[in-house]
């Protein structure tokens, strides 16, 4: 059962999100010549190559403006309000947004989760069965619901056996340090800090293969109006992945700063995460029946089992792989 405090925190966060979006909307000029494609993101390793491209001026030169927001939930509000044209989201978040009437198309897969999404628990929660009666903090997103479902199934528990606390990713560390939660469904860099504060990992996304992907999704009208900008952001990510595989020290240094990680973690930024290069993108997005579309169909059924509607609402195609560089196709 959701606690009254969790409900209050959720309402407060929605109000704060509304204020943040109002400020953001006011800050973006309504009438400018050749407006850039506005892409929202939030700190996450898989988004880092786009952030680096922004720092280096590559995105701006190609007609893309990267806007950093607090979370994926805030990006979804911005997309719904028409404040941004595109966002870095998880596959399930895209499906839910499309079900809610936002005409989004996936143009790029940034990464796949292979342990990065996890349940971090305090020492007193020695194993999954010990979660009974404990307070689990999680963000009420589709990814949160999928991870929670996996955790409870592995623990042999139901939602009624635990106390669910609605806490956004940006508030998890504070809730942990204040003793308000016993465990949290989290991801780096926040999960890394929870572990530093004495937590340990009991479950991660390796138990949910081909389920959690981070992607770039673009509103239909922006995809039609700004194809060159879309190609720019795709190329920027792919080149970033290639450089990373060459153990680029500059990338490591900059990304650890952006993610708020200590320098010692520089070489482990992508632990539990697989950055998707050109070949992986074409494997997932290419062909007449893209693999990611098949994964999405399966995911819709999984979400329906959790009473989350992720069925498409409108004719906008889910995937468009036509904006990749010619040499990559």
TrEMBL record:
Query: Which N-terminal residues, if any, form the signal peptide?
Result: 1-32
Q: Which domain of life is it from?
A: Bacteria
Q: Name one GO cellular component term.
A: periplasmic space
Keyword check for Nucleus: no
The main location class comes to: periplasm
Q: Where in the cell is it found?
A: Periplasm
Know the name of this protein? SsuA/THI5-like domain-containing protein
Q: Name the lineage.
A: Bacteria, Pseudomonadati, Pseudomonadota, Betaproteobacteria, Neisseriales
């Amino acid at each position: 059962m959701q606690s009254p405090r969790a409900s209050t925190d959720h309402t407060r966060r929605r109000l704060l999100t509304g204020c943040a979006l109002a400020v953001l909307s006011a800050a973006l000029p309504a009438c400018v010549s050749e407006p850039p494609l506005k892409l929202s993101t939030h700190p996450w390793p898989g988004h880092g190559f786009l952030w680096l491209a922004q720092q280096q001026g590559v995105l701006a030169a190609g007609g893309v403006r990267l806007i950093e927001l607090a979370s994926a939930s805030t990006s979804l509000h911005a997309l719904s309000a028409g404040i941004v044209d595109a966002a870095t989201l998880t596959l399930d978040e895209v499906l839910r947004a499309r079900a809610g009437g936002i005409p989004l198309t996936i143009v790029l897969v940034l990464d796949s989760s292979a342990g990065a999404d996890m349940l971090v628990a305090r020492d007193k929660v020695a194993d999954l069965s010990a979660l009974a009666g404990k307070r689990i903090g999680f963000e009420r997103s589709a990814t949160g619901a999928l991870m929670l479902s996996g955790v409870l199934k592995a623990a042999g528990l139901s939602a009624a056996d635990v106390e669910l606390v609605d806490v956004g990713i940006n508030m998890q560390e504070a809730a942990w340090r204040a003793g308000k939660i016993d465990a949290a469904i989290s991801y780096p860099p926040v999960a890394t800090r929870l572990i530093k504060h004495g937590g340990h990992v009991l479950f991660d996304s390796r138990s949910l293969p081909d389920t959690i992907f981070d992607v770039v999704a673009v509103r239909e009208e922006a995809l039609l109006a700004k194809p060159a900008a879309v190609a720019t952001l795709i190329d920027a990510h792919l080149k970033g992945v290639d450089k990373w595989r060459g153990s680029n020290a500059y990338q490591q240094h900059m990304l650890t700063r952006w993610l708020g990680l200590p320098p010692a973690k520089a070489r482990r930024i992508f632990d539990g995460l697989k950055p998707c290069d050109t070949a992986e993108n074409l494997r997932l997005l290419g062909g007449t029946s893209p693999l990611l579309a098949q994964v999405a169909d399966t995911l819709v059924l999984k979400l329906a089992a959790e009473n989350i509607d992720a069925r498409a609402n409108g004719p906008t195609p889910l995937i468009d792989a036509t904006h990749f560089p010619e040499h990559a196709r």
